[in-house]
Write a structure and sequence with these properties.
By secondary structure, this protein is mainly α. A two-stranded antiparallel sheet has the order 1-2. It has 20 helices and two strands. α2 runs parallel beside α4.
Length: 445
């Protein structure tokens, strides 16, 4: 994350001030120097540091996620909110400076947001009837559930906000990537905090109970890591397959990746949620995957005009692509439909089914524009690539005929899409990231 933007520094300052306020609101009664309280504090702090050492990386950025929330929440149940904040604050401070060696703004933010999340969760636990105790296991289960939910909402929300401000990616998307499908898993895993509190208070010596919790903590961390590695591996395999297909046609090299990038930005511009944007981006990446079949190879290499029979074969590629996509269980449904109908025209003159208007899946309408845009901005033997201004002119010309008018308007107002199209083929300036007019636009074959 780039933490030097004024908006980011302002946000970090606000979170830091909030952390100080939450800490000052705590009842910091210092127990006797010796006894079970300080033994528990030291043990929980050690377990939290252990969890941070084995943290895993988020796919959205260089941020990390760890299972240290288990000892944090257990500290609320055993020692109370102030000392839970102390465990979280000390753990994050050591982890960010010594283990991960992050820059100062990140250290401050990550430490402060954990203090806020843990402190607020602790305050909720006590207010809802929970009575922290290191001597006896007597939790308030409803209070525990509410406080755990509050912790995850606050800590994930703070992380997503920091990433959004520093990267320029929308908050909704960063929230989806940070939380992903793990929110329910994390809430379930938080029950380990109750197990930790139970084992620590009921087993002699208490340290034995602590050691018993390390095993499930390790497996939770390992499951998170494997899940993220599988997601990355699946994406890499899809990219590799698409590149292998496009190697048949020198004019479409990188086409699907570019279409996916434009489609993703256009989907964000329309205000879709993270999951919908991700599905449409995946569908755009795979929209031509059916061209891997041998009957398309000579047609892709042919330089002249296709015959009627060849055109019929070529127009079967959306259906063939959808059939391939449907072999992957988690791509059936929305992604498959977007692939199948990405050559449907808004006026109903497209293929394979001649759908029109809103009957065409939104993702397919988006891919149609992205696909055609990349085709227009690709150099061909019979014409040079069109400029952004000419692309917009052609999209407007066929708005309501080939393209959805609302999507053409969204395309025009997106600075990110303008940057992608304008700087295609060379690095863009600091934003994050067709023959002559009068012919009916076509996407890449």
């Amino acid at each position: 994350m780039t933490m030097q933007r004024p908006s980011v520094l302002t946000y970090v300052s606000a979170v830091s001030l909030l952390a100080i306020a939450v800490m000052l609101s705590g009842n910091w009664e210092v127990p006797e120097p010796s006894g079970p309280f300080w033994n528990a504090f030291a043990a929980l702090l050690g377990l939290a540091l252990f969890a941070e050492v084995f943290s895993t990386r988020l796919s959205v950025s260089t941020s990390t996620t760890a299972v240290s929330f288990v000892p944090y929440i257990a500290t609320i149940v055993l020692l109370g909110p102030p000392w839970a904040m102390a465990v979280a604050g000390l753990t994050e401070l050591v982890a960010e400076t010594v283990i991960r060696r992050k820059e100062l703004p990140k250290v401050i933010h990550n430490t402060a947001k954990e203090v806020v999340a843990v402190g607020t969760a602790g305050i909720i636990y006590v207010a809802a009837g929970g009575q922290p105790s290191v001597d006896v296991f007597n939790p308030h289960y409803l209070a525990f559930g509410v406080s755990a939910a509050a912790y995850f909402i606050l800590t994930n929300g703070a992380t997503a906000t920091a990433i959004a401000l520093s990267s320029g990616v929308g908050l909704q998307e960063t929230w989806g990537r940070v939380v992903g499908k793990t929110i329910f898993f994390d809430l379930f895993a938080s029950s380990l905090a109750l197990l930790l509190a139970f084992l620590y208070t009921e087993i002699e010596p208490p340290l034995l109970g602590l050691l018993l919790v390390i095993i499930p903590l390790f497996f939770i961390r390992h499951a998170n890591q494997i899940n993220r590695q599988l997601e990355e591996a699946n994406r890499d395999l899809l990219d590799l397959m698409v590149k292998a297909i496009e190697a048949r046609d020198p004019y479409t090299s990188g086409h699907s990746q570019r279409v996916a990038k434009i489609a993703g930005e256009l989907a964000r511009e329309t205000g879709l949620g993270f999951r919908e944007v991700e599905d449409i981006t995946t569908a755009a990446l795979l929209h031509d995957v059916g061209k891997i079949y041998e009957e398309f190879a000579p047609l892709l290499r042919k330089e002249g005009k296709l015959t009627e029979h060849e055109k019929f074969i070529m127009e079967s590629h959306p259906a063939r692509s959808a059939e391939l996509v449907s072999t992957i269980s988690n791509l059936r449904g929305h992604v498959e439909r977007c692939v199948r109908h990405h050559h449907e025209n808004f006026d109903g003159s497209g293929y394979p089914l001649g759908l029109a208007g809103d009957d065409i899946p939104l993702g397919a309408r988006i891919i149609m524009i992205a696909d055609t845009t990349d085709a227009m901005t690709t150099d061909r033997p019979y014409r040079a690539a069109l400029t952004y201004e000419k692309v917009v002119a052609e999209l407007e010309r066929y708005s309501g005929v080939q393209f959805a008018p609302d999507l053409v308007a969204a395309f025009k107002q997106s600075a990110t899409i303008r940057s992608i199209v304008t700087y295609r083929g060379r690095p863009p300036a600091p934003i994050m990231k067709p023959a002559a007019s009068g012919w009916r636009l076509r996407a890449a074959r």
